[in-house]
Model the fold of this input.
Amino acid sequence: MLEERMTFTNLSTKALLEEVTALLGTERRTVARLIAHLVEVDERRAHLEVACSSLFDFCVRKLRLSEGEAFRRINAARLFDVFR
Done:
């Protein structure tokens, strides 16, 4: 959960850099899980159940991804599906 105002004055530079590295690792794992889930949404055509005409439409309108983010994640999901 994000605080209203994030203050870093109590963090040492070393702790700040360690936290940035840890957050990046968390983000990568989260994106990987999102891509795996998008594969399943695509296979089930679940986007149709929420009135989205395509997976891209679902990502942009329901997940609120930018068009670029949606495009890249869908491409990654479909590439992932080819190799599984």
Observations:
- Helices lie at 13-44, 55-62, 67-83.
- Residues 60 and 67 are 6 Å apart (CA to CA).
